[in-house]
Structure formats: structure tokens, C-alpha cells
Write a structure and sequence with these properties.
By secondary structure, the protein is α+β, with helices and mostly antiparallel strands. The chain folds into three domains: about 120 residues, Butyryl-Coa Dehydrogenase, subunit A, domain 1, CATH 1.10.540; about 100 residues, Butyryl-CoA Dehydrogenase, subunit A, domain 2; about 150 residues, Butyryl-CoA Dehydrogenase, subunit A, domain 3, CATH 1.20.140. Helix content is about 50%, strand content about 15%. It has a four-stranded antiparallel β-sheet, with no helix packed on it. A three-stranded mixed β-sheet has the order 1-4-5, with helices on one face. Strand 2 and strand 3 form a beta hairpin. The mean pLDDT is about 90.
Amino acid sequence: MINLELPPKLEAARQGSRGLAEQLFRPISRKYDKQEHDYPEELRVLGGPRKAKTAEQIKEEQALRELAKAQEAKDEGKVKNGNNVQGIVSVTEMCRGDVGLMLSVPGVGLGNAAISAVATPEQKARFGHCYASMAITEPSTGSDSANISTTAVLDGDEWVINGEKIFITAGERCDHVVVWATLDKSMGKAAIKSFVVPRDAPGCELVGLEDKLGLRASDTATIRFDNCRVPKDNILGSPEVDAKKGFGGVMQTFDNTRPTVAAMALGVARASLDLTTEILKKEGVKADYAKDMWHSSAIEAELYRMEAEWDAARLLTMKAAFMSDNKEPNSMEASMCKAKAGRMGNYVTLRCVELCQAMGYSETELLEKWARDSKILDIFEGTQQIQLLIVARRLLGLSSAQLK
């Protein structure tokens, strides 16, 4: 039997994140939607850049990791609900308040997921204090991540990075940037690696910030790298170019981040559904889930459909996170949940605006803002079309060269 209820430890995380969304994020949501490039000072209470770890702290963490490995060996075969499932639960709840503010919490960036996915244990210890953004997209490279033009050339004990990256979430506020670059353009995607670059490194220049439709509380930056030098061991994972595994290792980042983006869509859609249900109830429209669609009003039937779409996206997202926690390959599931949740989020938030009519379209409520915020969730971390392409390749057993 499958138990779909949250265990007590995850229920506690859910309640804590919901409190944060309702008490901190939502009251200042409209404020920073209007003050797009201002940093949300209210978030500083959640912490700031973490201090670098001492040698003693690193040694203690290594000992804890060894204990965790021993426990993991003992628990072999048992079901685990770990950091990925907990992260999905927490992100969903926080995004009921504001997705942009969730992305602006100091010390937590998309680059941290890359470090977690690809870094060696030593690198995880060394970069554990970072607030890292992730720089992938380029002016001439969008959905095709394999077409990276930013270069990294080894010069003695340093990598020299040159290129320009756009649409970097938290690119201004972070203290480190995880940069995707190619070691040799002629070798294709296998030569693409990721590098941890200090934000204040010489040659790492903030060019500008984007004015956006949604997620205005979160900064989106353009950064240029002009002979930017970083230590040789700042390359994440192995510097060796492996035609079979090279790009795959870098792409593991998406197996972690795509379910997280799906959770963002779940959060903003849930907020829209809850508020819409509340507004319609005041107008005498109350969904009665004991009745079937064919004996309900058109509006009630639409609420049922949206709830079903939301729950389908939630279950796919939880499955992808659960598989990651239990060390099961989840690339296809990560793309499936991202595609489903992204599309669902767009549909639900816009439909809620329509159902609430003038109240949905005006700034009286946050519905119109949530609709604007949801659009990017179907685009970044891989567009809807790219996710469907990845799923098709997996189902058909075809390579990227065979199915484009």
C-alpha cells in the first residue's frame, strides 16, 4: 500500500514554511513587486552569507558524513524521505507567499544545487558557506545548453574564463556564481564543465539587471567574464573530458533543480486556487466535492479540474524528489514534473484571474501578480518544449542526436 501522507518531520517543515509565507512573504509581496530592484531588507532576519568553515568544522562534518554512510548501509532497502522531498514541501509552501521572495532568501541559490549535485566531498566542504547563483544561458544560447560558448582555458594553476551570461537569478546578490563553460568547443557538449567563481573576482563584471513581467523581487542579472581567473580546483567534479559522461555529470544539476521549480509552480497555483475558492464562496459558489462534474455548475466543474491538475503535478513532483532521495535515476521524472507543473501553474493562475473577473485582474488581490509570476516557471530550468523532448527521448530510447 502506498502512503501519501507526509511523515511528522516533513509536516513540521511544511508548517514552518507556511508560516514564513503567510507572516513574512505575503505582507511585503506587493511592495517588492513595485520596487523591483530594491533588496527586500525584511529577509535579512533569515540570515546572510555564511562564514567559511574552519578546518575543525570540516573535520567534524566529515565524521558526521561517515556516520551517515554507516547508517545508510544499515538502512539499505528502506524507504527514505530526505532533503529533496523536504525541499519540495518547503518550497511549495513558501511560494504560496511569493516566489520571488523565496528566491531572494540570503544564502540559498540555484548554484548551491549544482554544487550539491556535482561537487566532490572536499569541494562541498569548501563551498558550503557560499550563496551561489547559476550562470548557464547566453545571448546566443537558450534552451540548448550543449551550445555553450563561454570558454575556460587552463593556464598554470588557474582557469581563465571568458564569455557572457544572461538571466542569472540572484546574480547581483550572490557571493559566488556557478558558471557553465566549455573546455574545448570542438568537442561538443562533453567538454562542458561548471566552475565556482567568486562574485568579486577580477574580470567578473555585473553588466545589468532585467526588468521583468514577474518575480520582480528576485534580481535577474547579466554578467560578463573577461579573463576571469579562478583556482584550478574550482572546477566542479573531474576536469577530464569524457565523451560519454562529461555533460551528463553537469546535467545532474537539473535533476535536482527541475523538481524544485515544479514546486514553485505548485505553490503559486495553490495560493491562487485557495484565494479563488474563498472569493467565489463569498459570491455563493461553493465547490461540493461530493458531487460529480455533470451535476455541478460550470464554475464548480472548473474548480474540480484545476484541483485535479494541481494534484497530478504534485504527485509527479514528489515522485521525482523521492527517487532522488533513494538514489534512483530520475532524469525523466524530473522533466515530467517540471513540464506538468509549469503548464499547470500557467493554466491555473490565469484561469483564477478569469474566474474572479475584475477582482482577479486588479491589484486589489494578488491574483494578477501570481499569474505574472507563474509564466517564467514554465520557461526557466528548461522550457516546456525541452522537457517534453527529454521525456520523448527517454521513452523511445533515442539520443539527443536522433531526436531533436
